[in-house]
Write a structure and sequence with these properties.
Order of helices and strands: EEEHEEEH
GO molecular function: sarcosine oxidase activity
Pfam family, one: SoxD
Mean pLDDT: 93
CATH topology of one domain: Folate-binding fold
Protein name: Sarcosine oxidase subunit delta
CATH superfamily of one domain: Folate-binding superfamily
Bound molecules: zinc ion
CATH architecture of one domain: 2-Layer Sandwich
GO biological process, one term: tetrahydrofolate metabolic process
Number of helices: 2
Radius of gyration: 15 Å
Distance between the termini: 28 Å
Structural class: alpha+beta
Length: 109
């Protein structure tokens, strides 16, 4: 069972109290983008075995969205943080690098 802590209200609970919202930190494409960029925004998602950044919503709590970094293979949660960011906080990235030597942000694809 995945255990998450909502960074908005501080509640720690099982994943059934939350709802996953897919990959975090997607670059949104607007009406002026080309077809390939818009297709990538709509359909292409990372699916790593390992470190992944995701959007979650605290549906049975405060109702707010946040981001979580976790390992998809072990379910280890590295941390949660505000959804009002364009990339993970530096201290969280450092924590992940300590636990997964050799890993780096945006090394996938
Ligand atoms: Zn909450």
């Amino acid at each position: 069972m995945l255990i998450l802590t909502c960074p908005c209200c501080g509640v720690t609970a099982e994943e059934t109290e939350f709802h996953g919202g897919g990959e975090a930190h997607l670059k949104r494409e607007g009406p002026g983008s080309d077809d390939a960029a818009f297709e990538g925004y709509l359909f292409h998602r990372e699916n790593p075995r390992g470190v992944h950044f995701e959007r979650w919503r605290h549906v049975y709590g405060c109702g707010k969205w946040f981001h979580a970094a976790r390992d998809t293979g072990t379910l280890e949660v590295f941390g949660t943080y505000s959804a009002q960011t364009t990339e993970p906080p530096a201290d969280l990235l450092e924590k992940i690098r300590e636990r997964r030597p050799g890993w780096s942000w945006r090394e996938f694809s």
